[in-house]
Design brief:
By secondary structure, this protein is α/β, with parallel strands linked by helices. The protein contains eight helices and eight strands, in the order E-H-H-E-E-H-E-H-E-H-E-H-E-H-E-H. The strands form two sheets. A five-stranded parallel beta sheet has the order 5-4-6-7-8, sandwiched between helices. The radius of gyration is 20 Å and the shape is globular.
Length: 227
């Protein structure tokens, strides 16, 4: 394995905290103190690449995170997908991006602007509703996080289409289960983009959504389970 270790000299963690640090919504921070560094997303990226993470920490003794990636001994060759990959599809439409994580919001703004889009950004559903209500121009697409404080992404979309009936929607989440729990499935009046995503994936999904039908609350599927 190839490893990368990050250590700090902070307050450390007890056993109970260590057992929860990779849970999607777990945080030790108080209200208004931020949302942490997204360890659940880090864990997902590492696992997608066949790696794993070890953590060593004790109260008052800091913490040590080591990421283990399988060593590749052969010289890497470009994949067929990489060879055939086209430049990202661009556009000039106006996109409303709603995300309560500042890091993800700033990254989304940067990527969308790189693709040529006009970007309106909001850090909460309430801010998004106010922004749409007061924006004089067109808003072609809503790209929103699925799980946010207050109302979720689906509920936000249901409200915004009352103001913008032709709005297209993309729902983002690190976990497909979150989207299903929120009443969103791909291909039924709603488009889904899983985090983390590449510039190419974002570009393709935005064009797909803009070419699709406007979001309608009544199009939302009823999710059932046989389990």
């Amino acid at each position: 394995f190839v490893t990368l270790t990050v250590r700090d000299t902070g307050g450390g963690m007890d056993a109970e905290t260590r057992s929860n640090i990779f849970e999607p919504f777990f945080t030790t921070k108080g209200i208004g103190q931020g949302t942490g560094l997204g360890l659940a997303m880090v864990y997902g990226i590492v696992r997608q690449n066949d790696g794993f993470i070890t953590v060593h920490s004790e109260p008052a003794q800091g913490a040590s995170f080591t990421i283990h990636f399988p060593r590749v001994r052969e010289k890497a060759e470009p994949s067929a997908r990489e060879k055939a990959e086209r430049p990202p599809r661009q556009g000039s439409e106006t996109v409303l991006l709603v995300e309560d994580n500042d890091v993800v919001l700033d990254l989304g703004i940067m990527l969308l602007r790189e693709l040529g889009y006009q970007v309106l950004a909001a850090r909460s559903p309430d801010e998004a509703i106010r922004l749409v209500d007061g924006h004089p121009g067109a808003i072609d697409l809503l790209v929103t996080d699925m799980i946010m404080p207050g109302i979720n992404g689906r509920q936000l979309a249901d409200r915004l289409i009352l103001l913008r009936p032709d709005l297209r929607c993309i729902f983002m989440s690190g976990y497909m289960a979150e989207a299903v729990a929120g009443g969103v499935e791909p291909g039924q009046g709603a488009f889904f983009l899983q985090k983390p995503f590449s510039l190419q994936e974002l570009a393709e999904k935005v064009r797909e959504a803009l070419a699709g039908e406007p979001y309608r609350a009544e199009d939302r599927p009823t999710v059932t389970s046989d389990e």
